[in-house]
Design goal:
Structural class: alpha+beta
Shape: elongated
Radius of gyration: 38 Å
Number of strands: 14
Mean pLDDT: 91
Helix content: 40-55%
Number of helices: 39
Largest sheet: 6 strands, mixed
Strand content: 5-15%
Distance between the termini: 115 Å
Length: about 700
C-alpha cells in the first residue's frame, strides 16, 4: 500500500532524485531496500543514480544493495567513476568489484587493466584479470595480449593463463605473432599450435624455423599432438612443405597409429614408407627399438631414440654400437638412481665402448679379480680427469655424470667416475655398489665378495672400498693409489688432512661397516707388480719423476727461475696432455714438482682461470709465483704448445679471468691481488686424491 503511494508521489514530482534523497520520506512510506532499488531503476537516470551516493543513507547501504543499484547503470563512464570512488566502494571485496567491471565496455576494461593502483586496491586476483581479458572482443584482446610487459610484469599472469587466452583467439596468424613474444615452455607452445589450422601450421614450420630451432622445438613434437583429422590433413600436403628429409621422416614415424593406417602409401616416396612402419610410444613419440630389424630403418631418427644399454648382452651391445654409427646423435641413458638418468650421444657411446673393450682386452684370462680391478682402476686414471670446471658458473652436472660422455670427454666427477668403474667391473663379472657418504657429497665403490691376495700368501674374501676418483691423479702419473681396496677404517683415516681436519668424505657407518678388508702397502705393490704396473720390486714409475724433480732442484738450487722452468718441462715430458688433465696436474705440481726444498716461494698459487675470449669459459691451469728472488711470475698451461707459457702480469690479467665462484671463495680478490704470502691451491671435491711426496711410491 505504501509503495503504491510512494510511486504516486514520484509520478507527481518532477525532481524525483529529491524524493530518494530524503531518508525521512523513504522511512515514512516504509520503503525497504529491495523496493527502493527497483524504484530507482525505474525512475532515475544514470547520472541521478550516481548522485544517490552523495547521501549518507545510501552510502550506509550494505554492499549487496549498492551493487544492485550500480548494476542498473548502463553508462560506461559513470561505472568507471563509481569503481574509482572510495566513498561508494569502500569495503567492497574483489568479487563485488568484478560484478561491476563485467558491465563495463572494452575500452573501460582496458583502462582498468592498466590501472595498477586500482587492481592492488581491490586485490583483484590473476584469475579475475584473465576473466576480464577473456571477455574482451577479439581486437581488444589482441591489443592486450601483445603487451607482454602488462601481462607479465604488472598483472603477473602465469604462462599457462596467457596460453589459454591466446588459444581463445580466432585468427591463427595472431596466435603465432603473440606467443612468440613470450618465454613459453615447449608443451605450452604446442598446446597453442594444436588449435591452428593445418595449412597455417605448415606455413609456421617453414617460416618460423629459426624460432623452433632456438626453442629446441622439433616439427614432429607439434604434429604428433594434433588430432587424427588434423594429422591427415597435414600429411596430405607434406611433400610441399619445405622441411628436411629427417624432419619429415620423424613426423611420419610419430603419427597416431590410426593416421598411419589411414594414409595411402601409393603417392608416398619409398624412402618415407619405412617411417610409417616404425613403432613409437604413444605418450612421448620415442622409437620402440628393435635391434633385430634392419638398423638402416632408423637412419635420421636420432631425435626419437633414447635407450639405456647398461644391461645389454654382448650381442645387443654390438648391434647398438652399429646403430650408433647410423644414428650418432641418439641419446644413450645411464641410470644413476631410480629417478635420475644422464645422457650421452650415440657417438660418445661408440667411442667409450671401443675404449672399454680395449681395456678389457688387456686383461689376461688367468688374471684374478683383484688383478683385473688393478688394471681397470689404473686405466680409468689414465683416461679420465676430475672435471676442471667443477663448482663454476659453466659446470654441467649432467655432462660430468653421464657414463659414456665421461669416457669420451675424459672428464667427470666422483659419482660419475664411480659409475664408469662399476659398469666396467660388472662387464667382467665383479660385483660392486656405489656408496655416497652420509652428507651425499662424495661417491665411491664398495667391492663385494672379492678375494684379495696378501704378501704373506693369505687370501682374504669379503668387502672392501675402492675410490676411483681419489686414485685418478696417482694413476695419471703412475703413482701408488692410496684408495685402492682399503677398509672402512682406513678410508676414514684418509679423510683426515695434515691439519687434522676430518672431511668425512667416506663416512657412512651403516653401509660400510662390513667393508673390512684392507690391502696393506706391501700387498698392493705386489699386486700391481703382478700386472706390470710397477717394477718387480713394487716401485711405481712415479719414483723416476720424483728423482728427476729432486735432481733439477739440486742442480738449480740457486737459480729459482731455471729450477721452475725445468720442473714445468719435466711435467710436459712426463705427461704431454698435462694441460687437459688440469686437476691431476694440480696435484703433481702441488705435491711434488713445486714442493722441492729450493722452491719455497713467498706465494705459490696453482689454480684455474678462463680466457676472456672464450665464451664457453673452459678452464685453463695456471701457476702464479711471488718471491723476492724472481718477483711475480705468471704461467699458463698452453694446450697448443703443450708447455707452460710465461706472461707478464699485465698480459695475464688482460687475457684471463677467475671464475665467479672462485672469486667468491676468495672474498672477491684474485690470488695475485691479495697481500697474504701463502701457498694456495684449488681443492676440487677434496681434489681427486693427493700425491704425497713420498720416495719409492
Amino acid at each position: 500500500m505504501y509503495v503504491k503511494d510512494f510511486r504516486e508521489l514520484l509520478e507527481k514530482t518532477e525532481n524525483k532524485l529529491s524524493i530518494f534523497a530524503s531518508a525521512e520520506i523513504l522511512n515514512k512510506y516504509e520503503i525497504n531496500k529491495q523496493e527502493c532499488i527497483n524504484l530507482i531503476s525505474e525512475y532515475l537516470r544514470d547520472e541521478e543514480k550516481l548522485q544517490l551516493f552523495n547521501y549518507s543513507h545510501f552510502r550506509q547501504f550494505e554492499n549487496w544493495a549498492k551493487i544492485e543499484i550500480i548494476k542498473t547503470i548502463s553508462n560506461e563512464n559513470i561505472l568507471l567513476q563509481i569503481i574509482k570512488d572510495d566513498n561508494i566502494t569502500n569495503g567492497f571485496e574483489s568479487y563485488e568489484i568484478m560484478e561491476i567491471i563485467k558491465k563495463v565496455n572494452d575500452r573501460g576494461k582496458q583502462q582498468i587493466l592498466y590501472n595498477q593502483d586500482l587492481i592492488e586496491k581491490y586485490q583483484i586476483a590473476d584469475y579475475d584479470l584473465t576473466d576480464i581479458i577473456s571477455g574482451l572482443a577479439e581486437e581488444s584482446k589482441v591489443k592486450i595480449l601483445k603487451d607482454t610487459n602488462l601481462l607479465t610484469e604488472k598483472l603477473h599472469l602465469e604462462n599457462f593463463q596467457i596460453v589459454e587466452l591466446i588459444k581463445e583467439l580466432s585468427i591463427d596468424e595472431e596466435k603465432i605473432k603473440i606467443f612468440e613474444k613470450y618465454q613459453l615452455e615447449n608443451d605450452q607452445i604446442i598446446d597453442i599450435l594444436k588449435t591452428i589450422q593445418a595449412e597455417t601450421l605448415s606455413k609456421f614450420l617453414v617460416e618460423h624455423i629459426e624460432f623452433c630451432y632456438e626453442n629446441e622445438l622439433q616439427p614432429y613434437e607439434i604434429i604428433r599432438e594434433l588430432d587424427l583429422k588434423q594429422q591427415k590433413k597435414f600429411i596430405e600436403n607434406l611433400e610441399n612443405i619445405d622441411l628436411s628429409f629427417n624432419q619429415k621422416k620423424e613426423i611420419l614415424a610419430t603419427l597416431k597409429k590410426e593416421a598411419k593406417q589411414s594414409i595411402s602409401t601409393i603417392n608416398i616416396p619409398e624412402e618415407y614408407k619405412v617411417a610409417l612402419s616404425i613403432e613409437t610410444e604413444e605418450y612421448d613419440g620415442l622409437v620402440i627399438l628393435d635391434l633385430e630389424k634392419d638398423l638402416e630403418n632408423y637412419r635420421g631418427l636420432d631425435n626419437l631414440i633414447i635407450e639405456n644399454p647398461e644391461e645389454f648382452t654382448e650381442q645387443q651391445r654390438k648391434k647398438f654400437i652399429e646403430l650408433c654409427s647410423i644414428c650418432p646423435n641418439l641419446q644413450v641413458a645411464s641410470k644413476y638412481s631410480d629417478k635420475v638418468k644422464y645422457f650421452s650421444t650415440g657417438r660418445e657411446y661408440k667411442e667409450a665402448e671401443e675404449w672399454i673393450n680395449s681395456v678389457i682386452n688387456k686383461i689376461k684370462p688367468e688374471y684374478s679379480n683383484a688383478q683385473k680391478i688393478a688394471i681397470i682402476d689404473n686405466e680409468i686414471g689414465k683416461k679420465i680427469s676430475y672435471s676442471p670446471d667443477f663448482e663454476t658458473e659453466v659446470y654441467s652436472k649432467s655432462d660430468s655424470r653421464a657414463l659414456w660422455k665421461i669416457i669420451s670427454s675424459g672428464y667427470g666427477v666422483c659419482n660419475g667416475i664411480a659409475k664408469v668403474e662399476q659398469y666396467i667391473l660388472k662387464r667382467i663379472g665383479i660385483e660392486s655398489e656405489i656408496i655416497s657418504n652420509d652428507t651425499d657429497t662424495h661417491a665411491f665403490l664398495k667391492i663385494k665378495n672379492i678375494e684379495l691376495p696378501f704378501a704373506n700368501g693369505e687370501i682374504v674374501k669379503g668387502n672392501t672400498i675402492l675410490d676411483p676418483t681419489w686414485n685418478l691423479a696417482s694413476h695419471k702419473f703412475s703413482g701408488k693409489p692410496d684408495n685402492f681396496c682399503i677398509s672402512y677404517e682406513q678410508a676414514r683415516k684418509n679423510d683426515i688432512d695434515i691439519e687434522k681436519k676430518d672431511h668425512k668424505c667416506h663416512r657412512n657407518d651403516e653401509k660400510l661397516k662390513d667393508a673390512t678388508i684392507n690391502l696393506d702397502e706391501q700387498s698392493l705393490r705386489q699386486l700391481f707388480a703382478s700386472v706390470g704396473l710397477t717394477d718387480k720390486d713394487g716401485n711405481f714409475p712415479i719414483k723416476v719423476l720424483q728423482e728427476k724433480s729432486k735432481q733439477i732442484d739440486e742442480i738449480y738450487a740457486n737459480q729459482p727461475e731455471q729450477n721452475l722452468n725445468n720442473q714445468f718441462l719435466l711435467l710436459s715430458q712426463t705427461c704431454p696432455e698435462f694441460a687437459t688433465c688440469q686437476n691431476s696436474s694440480m696435484s703433481i705440481l702441488d705435491d711434488i714438482l713445486l714442493n722441492n726444498e729450493n722452491l719455497k716461494f713467498d706465494k705459490c698459487v696453482v689454480n684455474r682461470v678462463y680466457s676472456r675470449r672464450d665464451k664457453e669459459k673452459r678452464p685453463i691451469l695456471y701457476v702464479y709465483i711471488n718471491s723476492k728472488e724472481i718477483g711475480k711470475k705468471f704461467y699458463f698451461a698452453n694446450k697448443n704448445e703443450k708447455s707452460f707459457t710465461e706472461l707478464s702480469q699485465e698480459e695475464f690479467t688482460k687475457q684471463f679471468e677467475c671464475y665467479e665462484n672462485d672469486l667468491k671463495n676468495m672474498d672477491g680478490c684474485r690470488p695475485w691481488e691479495t697481500k697474504e704470502q701463502v701457498k694456495e691451491s684449488i681443492d676440487l671435491s677434496s681434489s681427486s686424491g693427493g700425491i704425497v711426496n713420498e720416495r719409492g711410491r
